[in-house]
């Protein structure tokens, strides 16, 4: 089994092991349904079993590994197209509501953090040939900032439980240089900054729709699959 960065000599912390294993799973270097052998991983990474076990438990929480009775841990299967649709329809309900709520909140407006996050991502990918992990982490943080600004832990926890970013990015890397994501996120950040809920909702709907069809390219035959949008009446 390869390592994510080819490094064997450096002493790895539990966090390093977690990130390295997570990258291997997300990039399908450990295939869906493949058994994960804790002894072999410990030998390969030159660490004791303790950080491997900790990483494996975290990855189980991420729904990237699951325990099979009598067989130990295996990577979970990839989403099929219908599951991807369901995930994005959930996001359309939650993210559209969230962005409207956040865009009318002048006191707790997160646009400064959103612009900062876009700038940080833009700097981080300069000269990087494969931006997949940067893109995943940026998109997770960007939408997490909007949901975090809502101040509703029930909604935030329900969203986090879907692990939507991990599972979508496991299918396909949809934006090879990050330009589309930066453009769509910048539009969202500006609409939130302007406290314009209609434009923020439109920008979020378009962003999620485009992102869904970008991820759906992982499938040879997408048929006539269509996202169903939440409709008015609006709550705000
Ligand atoms: Zn996004």
Automatic annotation (TrEMBL):
<dbReference type="InterPro" id="IPR036390">
    <property type="entry name" value="WH_DNA-bd_sf"/>
</dbReference>
<feature type="domain" description="HTH gntR-type">
    <location>
        <begin position="11"/>
        <end position="78"/>
    </location>
</feature>
<dbReference type="InterPro" id="IPR008920">
    <property type="entry name" value="TF_FadR/GntR_C"/>
</dbReference>
<dbReference type="GO" id="GO:0003700">
    <property type="term" value="F:DNA-binding transcription factor activity"/>
</dbReference>
<protein>
    <submittedName>
        <fullName>GntR family transcriptional regulator</fullName>
    </submittedName>
</protein>
<dbReference type="GO" id="GO:0003677">
    <property type="term" value="F:DNA binding"/>
</dbReference>
<dbReference type="Pfam" id="PF07729">
    <property type="entry name" value="FCD"/>
</dbReference>
<dbReference type="Pfam" id="PF00392">
    <property type="entry name" value="GntR"/>
</dbReference>
<dbReference type="InterPro" id="IPR036388">
    <property type="entry name" value="WH-like_DNA-bd_sf"/>
</dbReference>
<dbReference type="InterPro" id="IPR011711">
    <property type="entry name" value="GntR_C"/>
</dbReference>
<dbReference type="InterPro" id="IPR000524">
    <property type="entry name" value="Tscrpt_reg_HTH_GntR"/>
</dbReference>
<keyword id="KW-0804">Transcription</keyword>
<keyword id="KW-0805">Transcription regulation</keyword>
<keyword id="KW-0238">DNA-binding</keyword>
